[in-house]
Structure formats: C-alpha cells, structure tokens
Amino acid sequence: MKLTIVSRNPKSTKFPVTLELAGTASTIKTSDVNKALAAKFPKYYPDRQRLTTEDKKVLDLDKTLEEQGINEQSSIYFKDLGAQIGWRTVFMIEYAGPILIHPIFYYLSKFIYGSSFTHSPMQTVTYYMVMAHFFKRELETVFVHRFSHGTMPFRNVFKNSAHYWLLSGANLAFWVYGPWFAQGRAAAVRNDVWIYGSVAVWAWAELSNLITHITLRNLRPPGTRVRAIPYGYGFDLVSCPNYFFEFLAWTVVCFLTTSWSAFLFNIVATGQMYVWAVKKHKNYKKEFKDYPRNRTSMFPFIA
C-alpha cells in the first residue's frame, strides 16, 4: 500500500513523501506508519510524530487505517513535535526540586535569613510532611504509574518544573522555615491537637492518594494503552479522587502553617488539577456509555 505523507509545516522541503507499506488499509495500523516514517527519517522517531487527517483529527496508534477512513487516495498529515522527553523522567525532575530545596532552607537557615534560631515544632513537622510527600511522589513515579503517553516535548519540562521548583520549592520553603515562625514566636504556637490532628489527616489523605494511584495502575496492563472505568475507594464519588486527596493533603499544610505561600501553592495546584479532572471526567463519559452518572469530576457532590 502506498501512502502520501504531507507536512503541516509549509516550509518543509522533505515533504510530501510517499511511503510503501506491506499490507492493506484493513491490516496496516497507524503505529506501522509511524515506524515506516521513522525508518525513512530517523530524526522523526515515533514519539516525535503526530499523524492526523486533513481536518486535524489525530490518528489512533492502535487502529487500522481503514477504521479511520484512510485509503490509498488519502493523505496523512505529519507534525514534528520536537525533541521529546519521557514523562517518567519529567516527573522525577519536577519532584526533585522541593526535595533539594527544602533541606537547604531548613538546615541552612542561619545563612539564608542572617540569624540563628530554633525551628518550632510546626516548622519541623511541616518539613517532614513536605519531604515525605515528594519522596512518595518519586517512588510512585518509578514503581506505580503507567503512562498512556510516553513522552512530551523537552521544552515543556522547564515550564512544568517551575510550578514545583518555585511555588512548592523555594517560595514555600522560604516563608515557612523563616524566623517569623521560629520557636518562641507567637505566630508559631500550635497546640498538640492542632499538630497531631494535622499529621493524622495528612497521612490519611496521602495514603488514600496512593490507593487511588494503585487502582489506576491496575486498570492498565504493562505495555498497553488500555482504558477502563475505575471503581473502588474514592472512585464511587468522583472521577479523579487522586486529585481530591492531593488537595486535602495540601489543605492540611495550609492550616498547619497558616502561611500565605502554602495557600498560594494549593490554590494554583488545585486549579490545575480541577481543569485536568473536568477533562478526564468528560472523556470518561464520552468513551464509556455506561459510565456512572452519580460521579462528579473532583469534589464529591459538588463538581
């Protein structure tokens, strides 16, 4: 079968190009076209390609050309997505920021703030909560998460990392570990109920978040892009309980520290997670006709 590949870039000198593939439209999948194009132009490895129809509908890698209305008279349109980086690597880089930054502000406070002081119990508890949270995220990235999309454009890693390195890294650490919350300051006073209650709720939220991540992992067999309806703990109420429990964990940090920097990070993070949750919720309902109607996107009974 012969296929014409046209570039979305009008300045391209390499395209259009004709590819010859063994088989017919009923047997050739989009992934086969990816591989054939990569064989002709090694620079455009499969993860770097976006193949679409003329009306910009993205072709499904696992479907045959015939299933998507493609035949020998059709043209497939190609877009170069640029140099790619694996999502697993992206997450590792993002979460490494707070892990590196918080110890600097906590242990080198004398040099950063210009005076010696003793950290209050609130500061110490917050430090260990933040560190535990991001170490958990790193471990989940390595051992739990399975990604439906293998890569993303390399240039985006800087934008994605800024959220964690700046907001939950430098900004949060600077304002929470400063002398204004030091031992003996009125702003740092927390009774035992406040501290231990915060730790208990935070631990429950973090554990719940892990459980939902494991549920999502078990939906997708290794090496596949299989999608299914998640059920179980948290999923009976919302489509994205992992985001909801993440929101609760950071809300605990907000009310434990009472720092505006914690509230700022939580507001920004929750806003982004809500956008993702709404999108996933809509996709679930569109893809699965029997999707439970009682679920909301992220917040139980609300939205």
From TrEMBL:
One of its GO terms (cellular component) is endoplasmic reticulum membrane. Residues 1-78 form the Ubiquitin-like domain. The chain crosses the membrane at residues 85-108, 162-181, 193-216, 247-276. GO terms for molecular function: very-long-chain enoyl-CoA reductase activity. Pathway: Lipid metabolism; fatty acid biosynthesis. Signal peptide: none annotated. It is a multi-pass membrane protein. PROSITE patterns: S5A_REDUCTASE, UBIQUITIN_2. Belongs to the steroid 5-alpha reductase family. This is very-long-chain enoyl-CoA reductase. It comes from Mucor ambiguus.
